[in-house]
Design goal:
single chain; about 600 residues; Jelly Rolls; six-stranded antiparallel sheet; four-stranded antiparallel sheet; 12 strands
């Protein structure tokens, strides 16, 4: 890095992100955020390290139906090992620090957690360095490079996954994909062996972090700039010496994953996402881009602005325009075809983060080529500030990480008050990936007469159209259903419930919304699944009005015959509450 202004910009970004890490991520909502930096999917990626170096049980991990799954030949980590490889130096530092501090050297004590936070900042720095070098290869002005770096960090969810979710794979993919693009471009310009080698190493890391990110290889035509140049690129790369050296380096890295799979299952190649997959015939393109649940352009509007750079690419080089347009369409299509198109709890569409070097180039070209920049800068700054506001809302659980919709989004738009923290209820799980499903139960109670499938309940007369209703007034519990698993129920991989009910409440100030409870107990009356959510998706603003609640709920597999699945309403604050037309459909997912 020879340009001083770019170096200073990256330095200031990392300092700012370090402050955010210590003041927000490490504090968290309970003052002990540093104890759960490694969380959610991040635990699965990270688990390779304590399993190999501390527990020494990589070949005998206990299935948990979340990260570790049972196969016919052994138990396997669902996630790929590349993220753990990238984390390894920081894990080592955490282990040493834990020993010095006399903290548990278990892989999860505070020194390990903080080390992974530092890893996120490190790979952010690496990604920004290679992003700036990549942009300079396209003759982007240094000042524009600095502005672009600032906008890409503070105007997108890249910030969130460097600071708040550093155990997820995205910041590592971002670094290695940006590195790959730089080295591939350098190789196309120079045809130097070392760049082919480094390009191959970076691509191998991309694949063992997240194989679907290998589609970045379809950026190569754009990088070369023309059809003849692309053909020359291929001819040069497949020359014997370059190809052999690059392929050897590639397989050295790839072999890490193959060896780990073999240790775990006795096989070198395994599909570890055994119960997940793509719906290529039903891509959720609109939802991925524009839905209020996780729409890319809703939660990262700067990305939409960056597409303005396509106009100038079209004017300057049609081959490049069609190449990058096709790549972006392919990226969107594959992302939208994954069964869980919103990719679970997250801020925005996290699956696009790794490819932000492409957005950065488009944005930099737009800034460089546009004659009148003041309006563009104003819009970019507003969008970046908006991103920071939404990031704050996400951290404070004002924006739900799971199931936002238009009504919820409108309710908390631009809101930051503590009264909006964790204010949403409801449950809108999508059906788990499956080629077949079986309707197991279809049970409805209108409370006109006692139903043997339902627990005893107190009913009362109500105004039409609700003749008899379940009366919770002054009581915590009243109506509910209990299903005792027969021999067929545990055979299904997962369960999925569709629940609908009518309810009327008259909540007083400060009362909690009534809760729906999903509980599973074994034959010894021990609970192994307990989940609650508020009936009200949005805090109740109309008392005594009848409303209809619709909920979809993913339920873990029933373990054994005789286990009990219960679903009921918990009127926690004993408020006036009536329930009617309680309808449950329960599906087995195969």
């Amino acid at each position: 890095m020879k340009n001083r202004s770019i170096c200073i910009t990256i330095f200031l970004i990392i300092v700012s992100c370090s402050i955010l890490t210590t003041q927000f991520s490490w504090k968290g909502t309970d003052g002990k955020g540093y104890t759960h930096v490694i969380q959610s999917d991040g635990k699965g990626y990270y688990e390779y390290l304590p399993s190999i170096f501390i527990k020494k049980n990589i070949a005998e991990q206990t299935p948990d139906d979340r990260f570790i799954f049972k196969t016919e030949t052994g138990n396997i980590n669902k996630y790929y090992a590349g993220t753990a490889v990238a984390m390894l130096p920081f894990f080592t530092a955490g282990y040493i620090k834990a020993g010095i501090n006399h903290d548990p050297q278990d892989g999860y004590s505070p020194p390990f957690q903080k080390a992974i936070s530092i890893a996120g900042l490190f790979y952010l720095c690496i990604g920004l360095i290679f992003m700036s070098r990549f942009l300079l290869l396209y003759n982007i002005k240094p000042t524009t490079v600095c502005i672009t770096l600032l906008l890409m960090v503070f105007g997108t969810n890249l910030l969130m996954y460097a600071v708040y979710h550093p155990s997820f794979s995205h910041i590592y993919s971002f670094a290695f994909i940006t590195m790959f693009l730089f080295y591939a471009k350098k190789y196309s310009d120079t045809y130097t062996h070392k760049y082919a080698l480094l390009m191959s190493l970076a691509f191998a890391m991309i694949l063992i972090i997240r194989p679907s990110n290998g589609i970045v290889i379809f950026m190569l035509p754009f990088l070369t700039g023309s059809a003849p140049a692309f053909k020359q690129f291929l001819r040069s790369f497949f020359q014997l010496k370059t190809f052999v050296i690059s392929t050897f380096a590639f397989f050295v890295v790839i072999s890490i994953q193959l060896i780990l799979w073999h240790i775990q299952t006795g096989k070198f190649v395994v599909w570890s996402y055994q119960n997940e997959g793509f719906y290529f015939l039903h891509p959720q393109i609109w939802n991925v881009l524009f839905s209020f649940r996780k729409g890319f352009f809703i939660y990262t509007p700067l990305a939409l602005l960056s597409l303005g750079g396509l106009f100038f690419i079209y004017r300057e080089n049609r081959f490049r325009f069609y190449s990058i347009a096709l790549f972006l369409l392919l990226l969107i299509y594959i992302t939208a075809s994954w069964w869980c198109w919103y990719y679970g709890p997250s801020f925005g569409q996290r699956s696009f983060i790794e490819f932000y070097a492409a957005n950065a180039l488009l944005l930099a070209i737009l800034i460089d080529r546009l004659t009148y920049k003041k309006l563009l800068y104003a819009v970019a700054i507003v969008l970046s500030l908006f991103n920071l506001l939404q990031s704050y809302q996400y951290v404070k659980d004002i924006l739900s990480s799971w199931d936002m919709n238009a009504e919820k989004y409108s309710y908390v738009f631009m809101r930051t008050s503590p009264r909006y923290y964790s204010c949403f209820g409801g449950c809108d799980d999508i059906q788990p990936y499956s080629k077949t499903q079986t309707l197991l139960y279809d049970l409805k109670n209108d409370f006109e007469k006692q139903d043997p499938n339902w627990s005893e309940s107190t009913t009362k007369k109500a105004d039409d159209p609700h003749t008899m209703v379940s009366d919770y007034s002054g009581k915590e519990f009243n109506s509910g259903i209990e299903i005792v698993a027969d021999s067929a129920l545990p055979m299904h991989r997962l369960l999925y419930a569709e629940v609908q009910l009518d309810y009327s409440e008259n909540a007083t100030s400060g009362n909690e919304s009534p809760l729906m409870v999903v509980e599973i107990k074994n034959g010894k009356d021990e609970t192994y699944q307990y989940y609650t959510f508020a009936l009200n998706e949005i805090p109740n603003r109309i008392g005594n009005a009848w409303k209809t609640g619709n909920y979809t709920i993913e339920i873990p597999r029933i373990r054994s015959t005789g286990d009990h699945l219960k679903m009921y309403v918990w009127n926690k604050d004993h408020q006036t509450l009536f329930i009617d037309n309680f309808h449950i459909k329960l599906y087995g997912i195969d």
